[in-house]
Amino acid sequence: MTSAVTSRAPARAGGRGRGAWTVLLCWITVLLEGYDLVVLGAIIPVLLRTRYLGMTAGDATTIATLSLVGVAIGALCVGPLADRLGRRRLLIGSVLLFSVFTLLVPLAGSVTMFALLRLAAGLGLGACMPVSLTMTAERMPATRRARASTLTMTGYHTGAVITSLLALQVTDDWQILFYVLGAAGLVTVVVQWLRLPESAAFVRTEETAASRRVPFTELLRPAYLRAGIGVWVASFMGLLLVYGLNTWLPKLMNEAGYPVPTAVTQLLVLNAGGVAGLAVGGFVADRRGIKGTTLVWFALSVLMLACLSVRMHSDLVLDVAVFLTGVFVFSAQVLVYAYVTGFYPADIRGTALGSASGIGRLGSIVGPSVAGALVTAGIGHPWGFYFFAAVAVFGFAAVLVLPRVEGRTAVGVEP
C-alpha cells in the first residue's frame, strides 16, 4: 500500500497549477468526443450521395449503431476500472485507442471494415467522458459540481461546432475530418502523459480505504437504488436525444425541404446552443438546485422539439428554434451527470458515472437507429421530431424520481 501511495505522491504537488491542467486536458478530451459525435452525421449525406463503398441508408444506420455500441461498452467497463486503477491511466489509454482507430477509418476498403473501425474507436471513446467528468468534478468543491460538469461539457459541443464548420469547408473531402481528429487525439495523449495528474480524491480514497474495491452491485444498495434508476433512465433518454439529433438532424432537415447547406448548418447552430445552455444551466443548477433545473430543462426540450416538426419559412426563425433546442436538450443531459457527481461518494463516483454513461449509451444507440428507420421509411420529418419530443417527456419523468441532493454532501462521505 505504501508504494502505491508513494507512486502517486507527485499528483498532490502544485495543486492549483495541476488542477488547471486537469480542467484543461479533460475539457480537450471531451472536445474530441464532441467532434467525433458529429463527424458521422455531418458526412452521411455525402456518403449516401456519392455511394461511397456502395453505402446505403441502411449501411449508414448500421455504422452509426456499431459506433455507439463500442462507446457503450467502453463507458460501462471504464467506471469500475477507474475507481480501482486510477483516472489518469484509463483516460490516457482510452484517448490513444480511439485516436489510432480513427486515423484508420478513411483507409477502410469496405462498408464492413468502415463499421468495424468505428466500433473499435468507440471502445476508447466511451471512457473519455465519464473519466473526464469525474476528474474535473473532483477538482471542484461540492457547491460547484454542476458548473464543473457543464464547464467540461462545453468542450463536447465546442468539438461538435468545430466539426460542423470543417464539414462545410471540406465538402466531399470528408476524410480530412478523421485525420484531423486522430492527429489531435495523439497530440492530446502526449500532453496528458506529461501534464495530467491523478485525481486527488482517488489518491485520498486509496490512502484511507486501503484500496477498497467497489463492485457495480454497490449501486444497487437501498441508499443508491432510487437515484440509480432515475439517473439510468434519464441518461438513456438524454443521450438518445443528443446522439439521435446530432446523427440525423441534417437529413431530417433536408427531408423537411431545407437545402443541404442549410441542413448541415443546423448542426452548428444546435451545438452552439448546447454550449450556451451549458454555461447557463450549470450556474442556475448550483444556485437553484440540480433536480429542479433539470426538470425545467427537459420540459422546455419537449416544447422545442415539437416546434421543429413544423416547417419554417424564415431562416432566422429556424436558427432560433434550433439554437434553443440545443440550449435545453444538451444541457439537460449534462445536468444528469452533474447530479451523479454530487450524489455519490468518491469511492464509487467513477463507477456511478460510468454506469450512467454506459447505460445511457444504449439510448445513444436507439436514437440513431429509430431516427434512421424513420428516414429509411420516408417519414423522418415530422415523425422524427415527434419521437424525440416523446423521449424528452420520459426524461422529465425519470428526473422526478431522483432524490434531492441540494444542501448535502454525497451519501456517507466527504464531497
Describe this structure as you would to a colleague.
With 415 residues, this protein is an all-alpha fold. It has a single domain, classed as Growth Hormone, Chain: A (Up-down Bundle), CATH 1.20.1250.20. The protein is built from 14 helices and no strands. Helix 5 packs antiparallel against helix 6. The protein is globular, with a radius of gyration of 20 Å. The two termini are 24 Å apart. The N terminus and C terminus are likely disordered.
What characteristics describe this protein?
415 residues, mainly alpha, Growth Hormone, Chain: A, disordered C terminus
Summed up, the domain count is 1
Low-confidence stretches: 1-14, 406-415
The overall strand count is 0
- Look at the structure and give the mean pLDDT: 81
CATH class (first level) name: Mainly Alpha
Distance between the termini: 24 Å
Number of helices: 14
CATH-scheme architecture: Up-down Bundle
Into which percent range does the helicity of residues fall? over 70%
Radius of gyration: 20 Å
What is this structure, in a nutshell?
The protein has 14 helices and no strands. It has 415 residues and is mainly alpha-helical.
Spell out the blueprint of helices and strands:
Blueprint (H helix, E strand, L loop, with lengths): L1 H6 L7 H36 L6 H29 L1 H18 L6 H27 L7 H26 L4 H21 L4 H10 L12 H34 L4 H29 L1 H19 L6 H29 L2 H31 L3 H22 L14
